[in-house]
Amino acid sequence: MIELRNVYKIFNDGTANAVHALKDINLKIEKGEFLVLLGSNGSGKSTLINVIAGNATVSSGDVLIEGKKVNHLKDFERSKWIARIFQNPLQGTAPDLSIIDNFRLAALRTKPKKFVMGITKKFRTEVQEKIRLLNMGLENKLDSPVGSLSGGQRQALTLSMAVMDKAKILLMDEPTAALDPKTSELLMSNAVKFISLFGFTTIFITHHLKDAHRLGNRIIQMHDGKIFRDIQKAEKEKLQLNELFIWFE
Amino acid sequence: MDFYTTAILQGLGFTALGLGIFLTLKIFNIPDITTDGSYTLGGAVTAIMLVNGFNPYITLLVAVCSGMIAGFTTGIIHTKLKVNALLAGILVMTALYSINLSIMGRSNIPLTQTPTIFSAITFTSNEFNNKAVLFALFSALLFLFINWLLKTDFGIAMRATGNSESMVRSLGVDTQRMKIIGLALANGLTALSGFLITQYQGFADINMGIGIVISGLGAVIIGDSLVKLLRNNKLFVQILGVIAGTILFRLILAFALDSGLNPNYLKLITAAIVLLVVSVTRFTKEESR
Q1: Which residues of A65-82 are buried (b: 16+ CB within 10 A; e: fewer)?
Q2: Is residue B267's pLDDT more than 70?
Q3: Residue A18, exposed/middle/buried by CB under 10 A (0-12, 13-18, 19+)?
Q4: Is the Cβ–Cβ distance between A53 and A84 less than 8 Å?
Q5: What is the pLDDT of residue A97?
Q6: Can you list the residues of chain A whose pLDDT is less than 70?
Q7: Element (H, E) at B106
Q8: What's the pLDDT tens digit per position in A185-204?
């Protein structure tokens, strides 16, 4: 589904402040895989996600999605495959727009935004069904501005916006970083439900080792711009939580 | 009293400009001051075409298109050349001064002998009433158009572009293209006001656009305060607020002149009114927090 070949990313190349964020990354992520990405701050996790999403361009090497080279595609062009949940709840939704407006755009992820009234009764029902899956009671607030909701509610909406149009890849960069423990747990259980229900290929960055241990079917630890550990499904199931803690010592 | 009815009439003529500023400032969150230039451009194109015998409908089309090209240019400079929006606007506005002068060939073109949109469309033989009906009609059509546009799928993408750029890009919208279209549309509307006001006042003048952006900003901010007073944030209320703000702004100016103010101080008063409205809304906002 996603493939990185000899990917390098150097920020401020050629200056004294050059940062080698990614060094010769080779990575293949299969369809339906749920990859947990670990690593200390500055290890290159977010850069890795950004070169896949197109928010950063690679310095050299290739990024492939479904076997297609996407190096030259911009972030908004790669969004036909990729849905994102950002670290900051404010980034995934438009606060002054109503829930239904946000979902209308999400429903047009892969389609042109035309001069037509797309918010019909049928569309509202469709959105309500998707939001009901979250079990948060938001399905009755379609016309409220998203800005009036809590961070946890907004992250949950971003999650369900991902399933409005046929995105195949879900990128989550510390989606629970700004949330309290209870809300975090609710969001992650919803995420797991959506991932299995809609068959996403997922990359999940987290600092919560408990989440890293119990979620996903592959785990990668990054260190200094390189892939330091790559634990596949069978091995990951045998992995003990305290082993994860030892990784960071 | 005549003084005030004239002010209302003028306000209706400036509706298009107010809505243009509303689009850039409130919808796209871009401070665009190409306005001074594109308003005069609309007036210059209108005057030169009418004087040369073109019919008012074709003139209308060309005037609006000329404004759109001006906005398009600002948009390209802002998005593709990564120039700050304010600076991009100043650059185009400054360049337009020379362009407007070369279009007009001189600094003032009177329209006393030429047929205008007012002679082309007559609802009543009373000249003043005819102008009023026509301006009101334009304003109503613009209200319907903007209200429709912002509710379409494209319009939702427009609103999201000014609200959360990361979100709308992650949903497949080319925000640079959106901003260029928005700036073109806004300045097309501004030029439409130039078209209407030039024929209303009976001449185009190279200096007619000086400070016009401020009156547009004032209108939008007054409109915004009205919407807050009504505690109704629906789109059509916001758009109506802008139209009401445009008219109110002209009424305030008329009141200032009516109370014996030296017309030389008009721009000073304009700036003072806008400052007053801005600071009052800021003050009340902090109060309510």
Answers
A1: beeeebeebebbebbbbb
A2: yes
A3: exposed
A4: yes
A5: 95
A6: none
A7: none
A8: 999 999 999 999 999 999 99
Other residues' Cβ atoms within 10 Å of the Cβ of residue B169: 24
Q: How do residues B70-84 score in pLDDT, each as one tens digit? A: 999 999 999 999 999
User: Could you tell me which residues of chain B have a Cβ less than 8 Å from any Cβ in chain A?
Assistant: 149, 151-154, 156-157, 159-160, 163-164, 166-175, 233
pLDDT digit string, tens, across residues B119-171: 888 888 888 889 999 999 999 999 999 999 999 999 999 999 999 999 999 99
Each residue of A209-218: pLDDT tens digit? 999 999 999 9
Residue of A46, A75, A76 to mutate when probing chain B, most B C-beta within 10 A: A76
Residue A204 zone, left/alpha/beta (φ > 0; ψ -120 to 50; rest): beta
Q: Write the CB contacts of A36 (distance below 8 Å, at least 6 apart in sequence).
A: A204, A206, A211, A212, A215, A216, A218, A219, A220
Q: Which residue has the tokens 């097309």?
A: B188
Tell me A114's DSSP state: -
Q: What is the separation of C-alpha B11 from the centre of its chain, rounded to a whole number of angstroms?
A: 11
The answer to whether B209 and B37 are in contact (CB under 8 A) is yes
**In 10 A of CB B265, how many CB atoms?**
12
Using an 8 Å CB-CB cutoff, list chain B residues near A104: 153, 156
Q: Is A113's CB within 8 Å of B233's CB?
A: no
Rounded Cα gap, residues B24 and B96, in angstroms = 19
pLDDT at residue number B285: 61
Residue numbers in A near B171 (CB within 8 A) = 76, 79, 105-106, 108-109, 161
Confidence bin at B289 (pLDDT 50/70/90): very low
Q: Whole-angstrom Cα distance, residue B146 to residue B21?
A: 12
Chain B residue with CA closest to A167: the answer is B171
Selection from B163, B200, B185 nearest residue B34 by Cα: B185
**Residue whose tokens read 């689009």:** B23
3-state secondary structure of B289: coil
Quote ipTM for the complex.
Answer: 0.88
Closest-CA residue of B relative to A100 is: B156
Cβ–Cβ gap A113/B153 under 8 Å: yes
- Nearest residue in chain A measured CA to CA from B163: A94
DSSP state letter for A37: E
Tokens 């004239």: give the residue.
B6
Question: How far apart are the C-alpha atoms of A67 and B25, rounded to whole Å?
Answer: 43
Residue B1, judged by CB atoms within 10 A of its CB (0-12, 13-18, 19+), counts as exposed
Other C-beta atoms closer than 10 Å to the C-beta of A111 total: 12
pLDDT in tens, A162-183: 889 888 999 999 999 888 999 9
